[in-house]
Amino acid sequence: MIYQNKFWFLGFAIVLLTFVLQSSCSQPGGPKTAESKSGPDDSQDDSSDLVDPPGSIQGELDTVDWNSMLGQEVTLGGDLVVVDTFNLIRRGQIRVARNRLMIPTSEFDPNDADAEGVKYEGGENVAKISEAQKINDSASIILDDGLDQENLFPPRLFPGLGDAHPTVRIGSTIQGVSGKLVKSGNKIVLVPNGRLQWNPVDRPKRPDLGNPDIVVASFNVLNYFTTIDNKKNGARGADSLSEFSRQEAKLVSAITQMKADVIGLMELENNLKSEQRLVEALNEELGKEVFQGCGLPTGFRSAAGGDNAIRVGIIFRNDRVSPVGEIAMIRDDAFDVARTPLVQKFKAKSSGPNIPPFTLIVNHFKSKGGSSRVNKVNKNKGDGQGAYNSKRVAQSLAICSYIESVSLDNENPRVLMIGDLNAYEQEDPIDAIRAKGLVDLRKRFESKSPTDPKTDYSFVYYGQSGSLDHAFATQSLADQITGIATWHINADEPRFLDYNEEYNPESVYQPNPFRSSDHDPVLIGIRNSPLKN
Fold first, then answer.
1. Backbone dihedral region of 422: left (phi > 0), alpha (psi from -120 to 50 degrees) or beta?
2. Bridge-partner residues for 277, per DSSP?
3. Which H or E run includes 433?
4. What is the pLDDT of residues 18-61, one digit of tens each?
């Protein structure tokens, strides 16, 4: 009897202590959270939240042996960061980790142990890349709604989506979750058994670029094709006129809100009509004829890369800048599997006679895919850089050679190189450009702003973030840059908010900048100050 009374008293004390802790944690003044009104198990009583299931995990996820806990109830304590929403609507899944996961070659150089190194061959540091990728591969877990149905909206994981909240952005945090580990296909997933407490990430405003006289933007527009894709004609964009209208409306919203004077575009359909149509749509939105396209140079189709299905393009505001001379291109065999770079000089209308024009080079290097179709030199070598790395290095060197030729005629060349280079921050093609003396504008401004993240991103691939979109300048122009910023309107947004109508809930589509593409635009500010002696 005494033995039982002791444990009765101990149990009462535990319950009392739990009640006190629960009460203190629910007091006002804590972080703002959004609470899902229902969870994957709607029939559960709220009192279940008071009981922690066995298998509590508080630390990093890459050290967890998920297989050993398969079929068990587990609790992931602490904050979890949403790193992937690709299948949120399609399959009712998100991926979470302790932090945003960065592409290893965004942070680690395959050749140099010091990330400041500019060697663009060798591979002495590949082991570090492999180690980082191994950690990333095991540093996250999928949260699954536990249902067999697909394309449910609102999703059961976030029942307030579309009503209380317009989006679930990557970077949003979940304040711990309890549930059961189960197998879904060949993956282990966690099916939450209670309500999700999460902190939404606000959508960003247009970044501040200081006080520039000219703003240049680099924007991959994700296959803007005026030719409707009928699955037979090789078109890559919208599948219907309705989808095209939705795509165009989002792109127009994004471009007008960038407030850029010159925009370098990637993934236009390779004709003049696509550029002309986009310019018309922009002018219609603004109610005046201010946007203008640069078109294509004579002989473009015969240049290496000129026959690709997509191309780069340049559009500008004729009330703010004037083109100087005709549009040109860079002819080099390095671009035979990529897109021909375009070149155009511009002068701000507000600049005086002593301010020379600047030269813009717009690029879209070869992608990382297609390793099975290439020669040995360009195959994926397992160093984190994907296929065609050698080709991308050659493309970097071709651009640098062109800039060197321009420099022979001008002691202080003002050249800006932008575009989707299909290479992350520490990869060989980027190092090759740095090694040739061009200024990496993102790195320069990161060093001036120690409070900003040291590794930016413009793209998310399988839950890992990194920058494929870059901006480099000659020293003369770099000294006149007021700021550079990636406007995160796309990469962090879930794909069900894009223009596609398949699987996407109609009620959530908005003709706004968010998820207008899969790449974030990069904005660069330029001041019309006299050149330094």
1. left
2. none
3. helix 428-435
4. 443 444 443 333 444 555 544 454 444 443 444 444 589 999 99
Q: Comparing C-alpha atoms, which of 342, 278, 284, 350 is closest to residue 312?
A: 342
Q: Would you call 393 helix, strand, or coil by DSSP? A: helix
CA distance linking residue 104 with residue 382, whole number of Å? 12
Q: Minimal CA–CA distance to 522: which of 216, 224, 294, 223?
A: 216
Q: In what order do the strands lie in the sheet with 358-364?
A: 321-329, 342-348, 358-364, 415-420, 469-473, 439-440
Half-sphere exposure of 382 (CA within 13 A, CB side): 4
pLDDT at 28: 36
Computed over every residue of the chain, the mean pLDDT equals: 89
Whole-Å CA distances, 511 to 244, 497, 499, 505: 12, 10, 9, 14
C-alpha gyration radius of the chain: 26
376-428 pLDDT per residue, tens: 999 999 999 999 999 999 999 999 999 999 887 777 899 999 999 999 999 99
By C-alpha distance, which of 482, 418, 421, 488 is closest to 456? 488
- One-letter amino acid at 11 equals G
Distance CA 64, CA 83 (A): 18
Planar angle of CA 350, 418, 300, nearest 5 degrees: 95
